[in-house]
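Good morning C.,

I know you're traveling, so I'll keep this short. The sequence:
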Amino acid sequence: MKLDPSILRALSLDPAVTTVASHGSSGFNATAKISTTLESGTRKHFFMKTAPGKDAEIMFRGEHASLNAIHNAVPSLCPASLAAGVSDDGNAFLVTDFLDMSFRSSADNQRSSSAMSLATKLAKLHTTPAPVPAGYSRPMFGFPETTCCGDTAQPNDYKDSWATFYSENRLLAILDKCERNHGKDAEFRSLVEKTANAVVPRLIGDDHLNDGKGVTPVVIHGDLWSGNKGKGQIGGEGPVEDVVFDPSAVYGHNEYELGIMNMFGGFGKVFFNEYHDLCPKTSPIEEYQDRVSLYEL
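The tokens, ready to paste straight into the viewer:
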């Protein structure tokens, strides 16, 4: 397996001491491990994804921005992304710090007692205000890149209202894509539009949440289910920790994260109790489960 020169340039690696080999598997792309020797003599490893086509380029640019948004807020929660783009051979690529999840024994796979739990890390992520986007004076709902949940591209143009963003950039955007791919269904469109126009403002309207104060946008992983979390060592150093990967980030309401988490399972009562001790439920609390159910759509 040969490493494309553009990737060597992007990482400033010496080809004489750098190798690449297939590593892991993915349903959407080829995955590999890059290994090199630094000037200090230290061995350094990276994780790389490659795939052909414009769709892959969009996916990788979104994942690159997503990983770094999470990493910047909570560095131990996920690896940093180091480069994304199109290589000299025309394939899209993404390169991140290597996440070593190869620990086999039960002792090796235990989270270090000094490391934060996943619930604590996620609560920290969800209580850290999202950065102010370039050209704006305050945090906004959206994201600087298009992101992909699975192979579904999600538009993330900024909105100053969370209810508007969720209606237009999620429910109605997915409806439009479904109609393009499968044809129109009047009954289905009516149901989605009623949800967007009536249920969304009723449950998550800006003048309804937190006694009319609305919610502050925070970084959301966006595709957090049991298959996108684990225990690993980031960058080949430090403790084995609870980590996440394959994000599809957005700046949004923290409870939006909980929709996918609840829908696919893998997070129990103990997890949510610890999480909510640090990141309390949005008011009105009695509508919490209704909001989580809405976010499963």
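Safe travels,
E.
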